[in-house]
Amino acid sequence: MFTLSACSKLKITTFCWKNRFSRGQKCVSPKFLEISNSISKTMHDDTKSIGDIAAELYHKPPERYNCAQCILKAFNQSPEKIAEFKAYGGGRAPGGLCGALFAAKSLKDPIAQQHIEDRFIKEVGSALCKEIRSKNLTPCTQCVRIAANIVKENLE
Predict the structure, then answer these.
(1) What's the domain range around 89?
(2) pLDDT tens sequence across 93-149
(3) Is residue 21 part of a domain?
(4) Residue 84 within a domain
(5) pLDDT in tens, 49-79
(6) 35-72 as b/e, with b when 16 or more CB fall inside 10 Å?
(7) Which is it for the CA torsion 61, 62, 66, 68, positive or negative?
(8) Is residue 37 part of a domain?
(9) Do the beta carbons of residue 154 and residue 122 sit within 8 Å?
(10) Residue 33 placed within a domain
């Protein structure tokens, strides 16, 4: 169940009024349903976590971002920095770190970086990509989601 904003209610009320639906009458025309569904979809999109946004970018055409790039893109980093992090996906981050974790740490100061890594290890089971993948601890998209959400928590 969701609540409609004043703007959404106005759109529906205006549509119903223009099409001569009285206040007590149900407005269930196809146009009303279209408006209502688009409002519902918009409201759902607004409630996505930063982790969900980052995870949706993973390997999605046309960019096909790797795990590290998804984190940077979700946090609106520069195109140059996103391109630079193409080299850090798939276990190629320094020290064999998960690319999503490496990118998440790059967004914070050294003190916060250790906190991010500790939280990531607690949730995923390891910080190393090879270990995460070989033991099937967590899928890559989930690593992206977790890393982005941890960064977001540290921003608040």
Answers:
(1) 50-155
(2) 999 999 999 999 999 999 999 999 999 999 999 999 999 999 999 999 999 999 999
(3) no
(4) yes
(5) 999 999 999 999 999 999 999 999 999 999 9
(6) bbeebeeeeeeeeeebbbbbbebbeeeeeebbbbbbbb
(7) negative
(8) no
(9) no
(10) no
